[in-house]
Amino acid sequence: MESHAVEMARPMASRGAKILLIEDDVEACDEIGEDLRGRGYAVDVAGTGTAGLTAARSGVFDLLIVDRMLPELDGLAVIEILRREQSRVPVLVLSALGAVDDRIVGLKSGGDDYLTKPFALGELAARIEALLRRPVETRSTVLRIGPLSLDLIERKAKRDGRTIELLPREFKLLEYLMRRPDQVVTRDMLLEDVWHYRFLPQTNLVDVHVGKLRRKIDAPGETPLLRGVRGAGFILVSGTGESVPGAQNIKS
User: Fold this and answer.
1) pTM (2 decimals)?
2) 154, 171, 179: which is closest to 213 by C-alpha?
3) What superfamily does domain 18-138 belong to in CATH?
């Protein structure tokens, strides 16, 4: 990537959009990820086409950045599969192939924009902002993790069709967890990102709220999805019954 020694103040992402970067070049991932996080985005990374497709299918991302040439599964194949599955999340294709015909193929495969390498990080950010400004109706506004769904517009949660009544803080907590499926989330992360506390020693605030949320999404007889991870924090599992190392059911 090309960068400029002097750059205008970077606008922060208004929605804290979550981006999936599917790129096998570790150095490029680090550079792009650091820049986008500095602009206020949440960025997850996948290093292969197969891993990227699995992550993208979770439906928790607002935008995908997909390198065209990937190991295991070609980037354009990833996009084509997602489009066949009716995914409408915006996709920005990255490629060293810059001929007109190459760009046409990328766009016809389902990409919304096509950026040729090398590029300036500022241009990448500008194209991302343009894609995210598209009408919200054209983007996914419902998060789905296993049997759970969370409608970000209607502010409604459901599990297997069962409506879950959530308080505002519980809604924000569940959204945070659903945007990070199968990932261990620490108490410090929740304190800082959900409650916006930098440091709050000797408090059970997070445990109390997570416990209340768990009792709402994991009804008696249902497979527990929100679990504690011994000595680490919490995890929202995407399946129904997977074995998660160190995970344990949260006691009521």
Assistant:
1) 0.54
2) 171
3) Response regulator (3.40.50.2300)
